[in-house]
Amino acid sequence: MSARPFVLTADLLLRAYRLGMFPMAESRASRSLHWLDPEARGVLPLNKFHLPRSLMKTLRSGRFSITADTQFAATIAACAAARANRPETWINLEIERLFTELFALGFAHSVEVWADGQLVGGLYGASLGGAFFGESMFSTQTDASKIALVHLVARLRLGGYVLLDTQFITAHLTRFGAVEVPRDDYHVLLAGAVETSARFQAAPEPTLLAAEIAAMYAHSREE
Prior knowledge:
CATH architecture: 3-Layer(aba) Sandwich
CATH superfamily: Leucyl/phenylalanyl-tRNA-protein transferase, C-terminal domain
Number of strands: 9
């Protein structure tokens, strides 16, 4: 009798995140996943988010409109799409399938950025307790992914989250206050975060959202 092929489930994926691991594929066409638990982990402290003046000006301009959890499938597909500056992606069909399942179960979320009725930027990630694991973002217009990040952070703060895991550090994320922490320190942060009660704010009351973003900007000016 032949053994049944192993099938990774959404539940197993959540268990991996709880242990500090996350999956990546070598390419879009790859059928296998690699599990990572890097020695240094990227974290964006939610209470120290830096909101640049130029980006706040863009937010106030009304150039973009923002939603959350309305176009998850389109957002992850856009994150996985090849682009001129990134011809290859680590999001394969297996990751897309698993995160779509997580979204249906309420353990994954997306933030979408719109201009003239078109989806021009966004991000998605997994949610477990008070921890949010940012997976990927995309942008087809200047600042669209940055706007998505600002709105993600505001929603996480309103929802009582205590950890935003960025996996790795990039110059883009460092600009907003992301830092690297050693693996052991990250696991301590993670253990507390996943046991924290939080709720993703997909559609917060507009005045509360605006006040939260204003508070983030005020803190940035004080630094």
